[in-house]
Task: structure prediction
Amino acid sequence: MLLTPHEISQQRPVDSWFCLRAQPKREHIAAACLRQISDVEVFCPRLRFRRLTNRGPVWFIEAMFPGYLFARFDYANFNRRIRQGPGVSGFVQFGERLAMLPEPLIHEIRRQTAGDEVVEINPELEPGRPVQVARGPFLGLEAVISRLIPSKERVEILIEWMGRTLYAEANVDDVLPLA
Result:
């Protein structure tokens, strides 16, 4: 829904969900600062996932909607304070009209995130799934999981290496599923 600030002041209920622009990689900071203002509700869903780095597999947390967060507040009373908040770049606007979100949309996103603002993306390891070795002598090689060894939290992987097919065991934390 798109309304001008004047229309919001005249026609809208006091509490509406607004889409805010955040400074790059500072969505969580903007959300934390806005949460300190009473009568302002903030929703900033984030994703937690593992990625292979030079140090091995590392957990990262990033915004689900990079550069954006959502806040519900009385526009007439809080718009200046919100706009000037640390990490906030401004309201999402289309010309003079502010982007507002319907309550059912926010509710659905919250439902999908199970009420937690941090959703962990951890693809299940299963036989036949391609993986990349993240630690050890086969670092960087692609393999296929041939079987799970749950009692040891290990997997058996099939690796094509130097023209041969090898079976090896690896800790579940030492392999990363490929997309």
